[in-house]
Amino acid sequence: MADMMWAGRFSKQVDDRVNDFNSSVSFDARMYRQDIQGSVAHATMLGECGIIDMKESLAIVEGLKGILSDIDSGKLHIDPNAEDIHMFVEAELTKRLGDTGKRLHTARSRNDQVALDIRMYLRDEINEILSYIEQLINTIVKLAEDNLTTIMPGYTHMQRAQPITFAHHVMAYAQMLLRDKGRLEDTYKRMNVLPLGSGALASTTYPINRERVCELLGFDEVSQNSLDGVSDRDFCIELASALSILMMHLSRFSEEIILWCSWEFKFIELDDAFATGSSIMPQKKNPDVTELIRGKTARVYGDLNTLLTMMKGTPLAYNKDMQEDKPAIFDAIDTVKLCLKTFIPMLDTMKVIPENMRNAAARGFINATDCADYLVKKGMPFRDAYKITGTLVAKCIEKGVTLETLPIEEYKALCDKFDEGVYDAINLDSCVMQRKAKGGPAPECVKEQIEYVKRKLQK
Q1: Which domains does the chain have, with CATH numbers?
Q2: 198 is catalytic
Q3: Catalytic residue among 23, 157, 169, 223
Q4: Cβ pair 392, 407 in contact under 8 A
């Protein structure tokens, strides 16, 4: 094996087992594009500042672009025996340009180079995940627009509670996803700080122009402390946290879909393309996609915990422990993208069964609150109205009827404020239509929610 770039200090070759243990190219190779882009900006700045000859600067830039083109086309394969992607690119550049290639690493360290590459890579990944979130929100909006008057029971404690619409229910997830989008955008802002120029830990004696590199690479500002620039990975932790919350929302939605497509609910049916069968039970149609999302949520939580635990005991500045940031954050990103790419078309193709939702809403006395409100509007204190309605519900259960079918005589026997108008008040459609408070389930309110979400997506 060829000498390592840092081999001058050592009197013997590093044991092959240590090389294998130390190597990160198996997972950081995916950052080759960002590594080359960062090096192009660095080489450009070195030439402009006169730190290296301009001709050599231009040669390095062209050499790096050639390497990028060759990797993209498949002409050049990343050496799996390389220590990392950074050393692979530099070694390849030196192979092509000789001593000129060796000048690329002037005024930088692998520490600030790695910190730069991962920030650039994660910026790109955040943008891709944001596009998936927007697709999912748009899918939810379409689902809501198609089900503005689809009445279903709302639940608390998994017990039927009050009537709502399916549109209102799914739009709750649109709001959650908007917050997920905001968290990722905030993470991007804090991540978009240039660490290059921090050196190994104490910057450099060369007269570099960090602001120029910042401009070339599209960062908002340069890091203000060289130790901090190379030694923290809070941006990875923050991203993993935002992704964990996103996965929590996907998992909750998945859990409801699992319930809804069961025979006990049968509120929806998944498209055959997004369900699986059983090896022994021919009648089965299993919601494996949503079950896997529930399971993969735990995996992303584990990635977050890995990052937190990895960083909690590392003194300043850089420590090799921090090489473990990439497998964890890359896994979280890959998992989230896989889940979103599968969940969106599954949701888009599922069939809603309004009549089953309506039938479920007609049972369980979910209009009892509206019955109590009817008495309140006639002047009765709510607590008294609540008690009377509870007695009516008990009577209905005893007689095997519902509030809608209980004779008016039974109502009047308990309270003389009741009249035939109570049946309009407890009608499921009326119950929903009258809930017009901002954010409520009335179709006109849900339309406002939809328009709000659409405006947020346009910003």
Answers
A1: 23-106 (1.10.275.10), 111-359 (1.20.200.10), 368-426 (1.10.40.30)
A2: no
A3: 157
A4: no
Integer Cα distance of 168 and 450 in angstroms: 10
Distance CA 373, CA 389 (A): 10
Computed on alpha carbons and rounded to an integer, the radius of gyration of the chain in Å comes to 31
Confirm if 193 and 218 have CB atoms less than 8 A apart.
Answer: no
pLDDT (0 to 100) of residue 362:
87
Q: Higher-confidence residue: 297 or 27?
A: 297
Contacts of 23 (CB under 8 A, 6+ apart): 81, 82, 83, 84
pLDDT tens-digit map of 238-251: 999 999 999 999 99
- Residue in 286, 337, 385 with CA at minimum distance from that of residue 122: 337
**Annotated active-site residue in 203, 278, 279, 430:** 278
pLDDT for 182 equals 98
Per residue in 262-277, pLDDT (tens digit) is 999 999 999 999 988 8
Give yes or no: 278 in active site. Answer: yes
- How confident is the model at residue 2, as a pLDDT? 47
163 is written with which tokens?
Answer: 């009537």
C-beta atoms surrounding 154 within 10 Å? 16
Q: Is 294 helix (H, G, I), strand (E, B) or coil?
A: helix
Judge if the upstream peptide bond of residue 317 is cis by omega within 30 degrees of 0.
yes
pTM of the full predicted structure?
Answer: 0.92
